[in-house]
């Protein structure tokens, strides 16, 4: 366990051995010369960017990807020295900060590159060109547009375009029509660049789903996020993953109060849970301020003494209540996500209860909950 000090008995455990094992399995699955870029944006999908980044690099990842410059700077502030790519749009006036910290930025607009040029006082800005092949999120829309802004950078010594990439919208889906269109559109764009003698050193398109399903349709790098955390990119993908993925994130707390209430008594705000019988009620010090949102009240369950127990009444800001099968001691462990004995509550189960995707679940557990980094025991 890490030595982080905190004064509450609610914590996230991130098993870094599981992350390392996932990274190694993914790298092994790819052709030998393909490098893995570990996507650690959004605090490594809620797992903790610095610890995950260090783990991924040790396990063989070569590059880190983040969404915004601030995330890249956090990694640099923690002595991470590998190449870092910012995938999103950065303010042109901040490009010198990127140069000073050796951070690679993404570009896809003529106006951006022109303005960025006016903000460089020293050094060279390392860049990847983002082309849009179907997401319609960010990226150039045509070969001509991509060529024009690429040439603008190649004519200026302050810019160094080292890479080109696109992003798939449907690589995790059963129907591959759209994926194939995007793939073909990207390869034909690359050929048009090649015909003009323009060869990019770093080329990447594949997220977790595409890397796992089509390892041979990758380029020099892949950008892997969700699979590194041990989660399938989509339900449809679960059967298609030919190696074990180990979920790294679990969430635990401890019972702070226990009492027996009488049939007819109510629990929590609104007094809308009414005990049918005399019942043991335990209080868990986790609430919606921790990201355990109110919609998780009512039907959902947590683990106590290796058994599933239901959450009863509304989830409060800092606490919720459970219906216990028996009296338990103050300090009894509660597992909200993870394993106890033979029972397991997976991130996918919580996502399903919330009618969302697994990506969102570790991310919604707020920073008030400390992250502890554990190893296989
Ligand atoms: N590359 C880019 C540009 C991304 O936006 C993402 C994930 C990844 C790679 C990694 O994808 P994976 O986690 O499926 O492997 N981005 C997002 C997003 O914007 N919303 O959900 C996932």
TrEMBL record:
CDD domains linked: PLPDE_III_AR
Modified residues (N6-(pyridoxal phosphate)lysine): 41
Residues of the active site: 41 (proton acceptor), 269 (proton acceptor)
One Gene Ontology MF term: alanine racemase activity
Keyword vocabulary terms for this entry: Isomerase, Pyridoxal phosphate
Catalysed conversion reaction: L-alanine = D-alanine
PROSITE patterns per record: ALANINE_RACEMASE
EC number of this enzyme: 5.1.1.1
Enzyme class: isomerase
GO CC field: cytosol
Pfam families: Ala_racemase_C (PF00842), Ala_racemase_N (PF01168)
Top-level taxon of the source organism: Bacteria
UniProt pathway: Amino-acid biosynthesis; D-alanine biosynthesis; D-alanine from L-alanine: step 1/1
Alanine racemase C-terminal domain segment(s): 248-374
Example GO biological process: D-alanine biosynthetic process
Keyword Isomerase tagged: yes
Sequence positions that bind substrate: 137, 317
Cofactors (names): pyridoxal 5'-phosphate
Protein function: Catalyzes the interconversion of L-alanine and D-alanine. May also act on other amino acids.
HAMAP family: Ala_racemase
Family to which this protein belongs: Belongs to the alanine racemase family.
NCBIfam families given in the database record: alr (TIGR00492)
Protein name: Alanine racemase
Organism of origin: Lottiidibacillus patelloidae
Primary gene name: alr
């Amino acid at each position: 366990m890490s030595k982080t000090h905190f004064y509450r008995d609610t914590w996230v455990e991130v098993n870094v051995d599981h992350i390392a094992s996932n990274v190694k399995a993914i790298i092994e699955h790819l052709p030998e010369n393909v490098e893995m870029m570990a996507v650690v944006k959004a605090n490594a999908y809620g797992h903790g960017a610095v610890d995950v980044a260090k783990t991924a690099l040790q396990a063989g990842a070569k590059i880190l990807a983040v969404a915004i410059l601030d995330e890249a700077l956090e990694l640099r502030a923690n002595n991470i020295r590998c190449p870092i790519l910012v995938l999103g749009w950065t303010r042109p006036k901040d490009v010198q900060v990127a140069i000073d910290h050796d951070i690679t930025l993404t570009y896809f607009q003529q106006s951006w590159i022109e303005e960025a040029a006016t903000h460089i006082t020293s050094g060279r800005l390392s860049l990847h060109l983002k082309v849009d092949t179907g997401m319609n999120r960010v990226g150039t829309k045509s070969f001509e547009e991509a060529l024009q802004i690429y040439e603008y950078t190649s004519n200026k010594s302050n810019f160094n375009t080292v890479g080109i990439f696109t992003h798939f919208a449907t690589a995790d889906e059963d129907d591959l029509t759209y994926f194939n269109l995007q793939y073909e559109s990207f390869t034909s764009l690359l050929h048009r660049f090649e015909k003009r003698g323009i060869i990019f050193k770093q080329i990447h398109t594949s997220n977790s789903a595409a890397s796992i399903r089509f390892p041979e349709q990758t380029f020099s790098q892949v950008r892997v996020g969700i699979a590194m955390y041990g989660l399938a990119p989509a339900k449809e993908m679960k059967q298609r993953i030919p190696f074990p993925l180990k979920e790294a994130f679990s969430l635990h707390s401890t019972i702070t109060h226990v009492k027996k209430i009488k049939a007819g008594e109510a629990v929590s705000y609104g007094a809308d849970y009414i005990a049918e019988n005399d019942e043991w009620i335990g209080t868990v010090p986790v609430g919606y301020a921790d990201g355990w949102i109110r919609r998780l009240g009512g039907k959902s369950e947590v683990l106590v003494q290796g058994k599933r127990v239901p959450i009863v009444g509304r989830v409060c800001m800092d606490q919720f209540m459970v219906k216990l099968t028996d009296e338990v001691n103050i300090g009894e462990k509660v597992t909200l996500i993870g394993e106890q004995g033979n029972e397991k509550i997976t991130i996918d189960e919580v996502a399903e209860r919330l009618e969302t995707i697994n990506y969102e679940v570790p991310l919604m557990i707020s920073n008030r909950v400390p992250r502890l980094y554990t190893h296989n025991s």
